[in-house]
Amino acid sequence: MAGYRFLQLDVFTERVFGGNPLAVFPEADGLSTEDMLKIAREMNLSETVFVLKPEEAPEAHSVGVTPKTNTEQSSADKNRAESETHKVLRRLRIFTPTREIPFAGHPVVGTWNALAREGVVPLPETGTGWTRIQHAIGIGVLPVDIEFKEGQPVQVVMTQGKPALGTVVEDSHQQADIARALGLAHEDLNESLPIQVISTGLPFLAVPIRALADLRNCRVNAALLTEIYNDLEATGCCPFTRETIEAGSARAHLRMFAPDDNIPEDPATGSAAGALGAYLVYYGASGVEPVDNVFKFVLEQGDWIKRPSRIRVEVRGGTAAVEQVRVGGSSVLVIRGELSL
Fold first, then answer.
1. Mapped to the 3 state alphabet, what secondary structure does 12-35 carry?
2. Active site residues
3. How is domain 164-326 classified at the architecture level of CATH?
4. Is pTM, for the whole model, over 0.85?
5. What topology does CATH give the domain 3-160+331-340?
6. Is the distance from CB of 235 to CB of 204 less than 8 angstroms?
7. Looking at the predicted structure, is the pLDDT value of residue 203 above 50?
8. Biggest CA-to-CA distance, the chain
């Protein structure tokens, strides 16, 4: 009987029992795809990550983005890569309880926090500062930045795939169906922004809602919502409002429902947050002024399922000209264990 170590973390939070739970198997070489899916079902979290040694070590590149050189970095980013590796450090395979997906947010952020704790990531020279690595996921090879303080990881920032804004739902009958699938009235939709499929590697249906109270009152019709977002070739539905619970840097509150993946509601969805950040900047609705051509703000999620999450978003570009999206946050280690197979 083989044993496989795993770590469980709460991601996009600084405290236990907040954020989004994630299981990480840091030494998953030898597991088959079938094994991985069975384990993901057993863990029964929104995602489980299996970490593999890279099949090969290609030169660093990325999908839809160009890695910045030191001379291209803004003044806010110049300390972000004290040490860089230009080879792929690990390959990640990400599974929901029902299938493998090519890309996700909280699995990447949580996995690299875990691997940094495991000593996989080279420390900055002083133990405090930033390290940049490259990793392989289903959509390609992308950079990840890890911030350390006194040798411990405190923040992980992932670069996401090329931002893309897709199908806009303009038909009023379809809009009414979407509202009904969320348990809302058509009048609860915010018509100043479009209902649209958005993506930085994984497509979501973004649904703007007028008020925080309406967003809180969502009561999902899972069968209808699944039919709607599947027909639009999305992987979940992300209703949001620009009203927030907290003041300060928060600029929107979102929820994410993916019943077709056995995820009734996700507490923190980094891939949806990155895509929503790009959408808000594209339509001039982020509510912040850029610094060195970068918009920085926080998105809230998870509060009404008692897993409050705060997701930091950075969008490079501007209105109708989004170039790059990065998403980051903290993670807390909750469980160490071993699975017998």
1. CCCCCCCCEEEEEECCCCCCCHHH
2. 47
3. Roll (3.10)
4. yes
5. Diaminopimelate Epimerase; Chain A, domain 1 (3.10.310)
6. yes
7. yes
8. 59
